[in-house]
Specification:
single chain; 12 helices; globular; seven-stranded parallel β-sheet; alpha/beta
């Protein structure tokens, strides 16, 4: 039975513009992309490429894969699947007081039960905090050194993401959802690029995006300042912004690596697999439970709802695509790719975002350095 307080929360959410945006626009966007996949079957359509999965390159050492958001949903499913492919999987678990350590241990035990040969290592990381991301990178490098393993990684999957329904700022002043979904992935990628570049075989970055991306972006959007002014927190809008930022960053990183002649060694892939509607994960945990259950029920009736075990297909397609492939957007499984939104290919917008993000990254790096000097 729904309590009075919960009922008020449900009604407040249902009659908000954010709910209407999620219920109508997000569903329409999902239908549009599935329609694009459908028309690719016909001779008159411009066919997008599809790619087979390849086994990891033969090396004298076990390839290492880093996955964020790996204790549930798609991250957990990807960790299991890639352990079966022979990767040494490093699980990045969101650090929640009193819960993260237990969840991480539980996830690793469950994967080992299904794959006794799985090689796993777990670390806690809060992607909304630069200090935590930097600590994760240092811990990873220290583990590689202490384990006498090759000082490199072969695959980075930026999977972690949240859909927050209330405004929360990080200690660094960022909107928590923007920090987790975009700036955390940007910072982690920048920090791990040296390890990706030092791989003796081609390495890869897979950024998990969503069909919800749209609209423009500027510095205020990145740090969340322009979203803290309305009376009601625009959760749907910010989620869309964070996923657009991830796309713009991914395409720009692909171009940057190409200019540095690194694209043959470090490739950037976009896996369109994670969204709060198409895959049944806990992304909607902050949405009133009766609404999230109803949304999943409607999607199931429309045959659009996937389990994490099925939804992970696009992530695996991107992660295991031929090594010469880069800068593509995977959607729908079976190695298929589609075009993302026209705005996501806007080079001027991507360059502006890149510059702003690098400035914010540098500021965070300098702050962390000053703090370390002060402590020492």
């Amino acid at each position: 039975m729904i309590q009075t307080k919960e009922l008020r929360e449900v009604l407040h959410f249902v009659f908000s513009l954010q709910f209407i945006r999620m219920a109508l626009f997000w569903m329409l966007s999902l239908f549009i992309l599935y329609f694009r996949l459908f028309i690719q079957r016909f001779p008159f359509s411009r066919k997008s490429s599809s790619f087979p999965r390849c086994s990891p390159a033969n090396t004298s050492f076990r390839p290492i894969c880093v996955i964020t958001g790996a204790t549930s949903g798609l991250g957990k499913a990807a960790a299991y699947a890639l352990s079966k492919e022979g990767f040494y999987v490093v699980l990045g678990a969101h650090s929640i007081a009193g819960r993260s350590s237990h969840l991480l241990s539980k996830t690793m035990i469950e994967i080992k039960e299904k794959n006794i040969d799985a090689h796993l290592k777990g670390f806690q990381v809060d992607l909304s905090s630069f200090h935590s991301v930097l600590k994760f990178k240092n811990s990873l490098e220290r583990w590689l050194s202490d384990s006498n393993m090759h000082s490199s990684i072969q695959l980075l999957i930026n999977n972690a993401g949240i859909l927050a329904t209330s405004c929360r700022l990080t200690s660094e002043g960022y909107d928590q959802m923007m920090a987790t979904n975009y700036m955390g992935a940007f910072s982690l990628t920048k920090l791990l690029l040296p390890l990706l570049r030092s791989s003796p075989v081609p390495s890869r970055i897979v950024n998990v995006s969503s069909f919800t991306h749209l609209n423009g972006v500027d510095e205020d959007a990145i740090i969340g300042k322009c979203f803290s002014r309305p009376k009601q927190y625009p959760c749907a809008h910010i989620y869309e912004y964070s996923k657009l930022c991830l796309l713009l960053f991914s395409y720009e990183l692909h171009r940057q690596l190409g200019r540095m002649h690194d694209s043959r060694h470090v490739s950037v892939m976009l896996s369109f697999a994670v969204d709060p509607g198409a895959v049944e994960t806990n992304i909607m945990r902050e949405v009133p439970s009766c609404i999230s259950h109803m949304a999943y029920m409607v999607l199931k009736l429309l045959f659009l709802l996937q389990s994490p075990e099925n939804g992970v297909s696009s992530i695996l397609d991107a992660a295991l695509a031929p090594p010469e492939i880069s800068g593509l957007y995977f959607f729908g499984g079976k190695g298929r790719t589609v075009k993302s939104s026209a705005l996501s290919y806007n080079m001027k917008l991507a360059e502006k975002l890149w510059t702003t993000s690098c400035d914010l990254f540098l500021a965070s790096e300098q702050a962390a350095s000053l703090l370390a000097d002060h402590v020492s």
